Amino acid sequence: QVQLVESGGGLVQPGGSLRLSCTASGSIFSDNAMGWYRQAPGKDREYVARILHNGITNYADSVKGRFAVSKNNAKNTVYLQMNSLKPEDTAVYYCSVRGIWGQGTLVTVSS
User: Fold this and answer.
1) According to the model, what pLDDT value does residue 43 have?
2) CA-based nearest residue to 23, from 44, 37, 43, 8
3) What gap in Å lies between CA 43 and CA 58, rounded to an integer?
4) How far apart are CA 28 and CA 16, in angstroms?
5) DSSP 5-68
6) What is the pLDDT of residues 12-56, one digit of tens each?
7) Between 26 and 7, where is the model more confident?
8) Strand, coil or helix: what is 111?
9) Phi, psi angle pair for 42, to nearest 5°
């Protein structure tokens, strides 16, 4: 069973940037779509972005133009570059592929 580990979360001021990473224990991203999701306190988990096996990306309207997803198949890692962060981006961010979920990484946007 492939395992996913997210990293890169932390505390950032509004307008700042963070880059999240999702590393898989095996080579899975080259052949599968991978998604980023987030769950804010007291809210349901929501879709953030997706990258297909061929590199095509898709974003939720709430992050379009601010977030960018990319991957490095050789490193079994997918990234989520988050710019112009807003307090409403505060959440635990998860990556998922083929029904497998990571443990999440907390992003807090606050002054």
Assistant:
1) 96
2) 8
3) 22
4) 31
5) EEE--EEE-TT--EEEEEEESSS-TTTS-EEEEEE-TTS-EEEEEEE-TTS-EEE-TTTTTTEE
6) 999 999 999 999 998 887 788 999 999 999 999 999 999 999 999
7) 7
8) coil
9) 75, 5
In Å, what is the CA distance from 19 to each residue of 7, 31, 44, 48? Answer: 9, 23, 23, 14
- Residue type present at position 6: E
59 vs 29, higher pLDDT: 59
Question: Which tokens sit at 105?
Answer: 């990484």
Q: In this structure, which amino acid lies at residue 49?
A: A
Handedness of CA 100, 90, 106, 43 (dihedral sign): negative
Q: Which of 3, 22, 15 is nearest to 69 (CA)?
A: 22
Report pLDDT for 12.
Answer: 98
